[in-house]
Amino acid sequence: MNVDVTISSHMGKLAAGPDRKSPTRFAVVMAVTSTSKSARRDEFVHRLPKIELHAHLNGSIRRSTLCELAAARGIDAAAAMLDSPTPQTLSEAFDVFRVIHACVTTLQDIERLAVELAYDLDDDGVVYAEIRTTPRALPASLAAQDAGTLDEYVEAVLRGFERYTCEQMGDKVGLRLILSIDRAKHTASDAQAIVDLALRFQTRGVVGMDLSGDPTKGEWANFEPALQRARLHGLKITLHAGEVRGRDDEMAAMLAFHPDRFGHCCFVSASNLALLKQSGVPIELCLTSNLLSNSTPSLERHHFRDHYTHVDSHAEQEECTVCCISTDDSGVFNSPLSNEFRLVMQTFALDQQQAFHLARRTLQATFLTRPRLDFPSEATNQLMREDDQLRRNILARFAAFHQTWRWN
């Protein structure tokens, strides 16, 4: 049901003046007006240039692709919960991921997910995305006998990105990759190996490291040394944090580490919240994911309200937290980035200009490198030039939208 239309209908019953004798007609007029506004907002969020900074590759799988792969592997859709629209708790979300991993079993699948996600982002008006994934040793195809290497997994993702880039005409989504350490499955030694993997692909599109996985498993201290080493070698760091209650000490330790971005931060004590705001670390906020996994009681009470301050993105004021609206797992939660912006505007009464600056300001939080003069490596210098050009292209797309959109 269209909430705006329902509200308008109730308003119609309170009409006074000449229209008092025909409240139904007044309600219809109000409903049409409200529907028109809603349609215009939907057009706005779709056309708005957007930056996606928290999206898991496997969790962004198309539902049609997941069902197709499940059928090919003899997995019953109903038993695997593929018939249910969305998970309702965080534990159910991790159950869905286990199903996805049971269906996505080859490097061909991984390449397919990467290219399909790139096209989906493009269709949704995303101009830049940093996709994260946990590398797995997978065979090249169902017919292959031996599992491939983690390097081949990363190659498959990048190959999917490259296919999209070569096939797509006109403006394209800028794509970069973040490698994830799974705190529930990986050891400290595994984490160091994934850092080594990221460093091998650092000049080919891998821009950072992520710590993710079941937040009730694993200890932060086991993974901090690997992430410290990654940062020492120029990789950026983002941390899933504050996903469950009772992790205040861990959150304090993560704050002391001072990553380049935090993800979620749903359950943060008052003292840690104060430190988080003082830190200036950008936060990746995923409204639908947090709501459906019961990490927030309602959209109205989502912690976006605790961190958001309207800032003209042209001013680039660093003292205000950069809120990075993200999807987390658009396939699992059935919500593209345009819908996340629609929810933000609708729930927190942001107007179009505020939503524009919210989206544009996210560019400050990306892991794109900036030009420097102290790197002797030609490969590194070339990467910096490419990132600088990509940043310019993104800004140009925001500028073109700002100039051509019919502002209210």
TrEMBL record:
Keyword Nucleus: no
Required cofactor(s): Zn(2+)
Molecular function per GO: adenosine deaminase activity; metal ion binding
Domain Adenosine deaminase: 49-370
GO biological process, one term: inosine biosynthetic process
InterPro entries hit by this protein: A_deaminase_dom (IPR001365), Ado/ade_deaminase (IPR006330), Metal_Hydrolase (IPR032466)
Alphabetic keyword roster: Hydrolase, Metal-binding, Nucleotide metabolism, Zinc
Protein name, per record: Adenosine deaminase domain-containing protein
Family to which this protein belongs: Belongs to the metallo-dependent hydrolases superfamily. Adenosine and AMP deaminases family.
Origin: domain of life: Eukaryota
Stretches for region Disordered: 1-20
Source species of the chain: Moesziomyces aphidis
Organism lineage: Eukaryota, Fungi, Dikarya, Basidiomycota, Ustilaginomycotina
Catalytic activity, as annotated: N(6)-methyl-AMP + H2O + H(+) = IMP + methylamine
Pfam family, one: A_deaminase
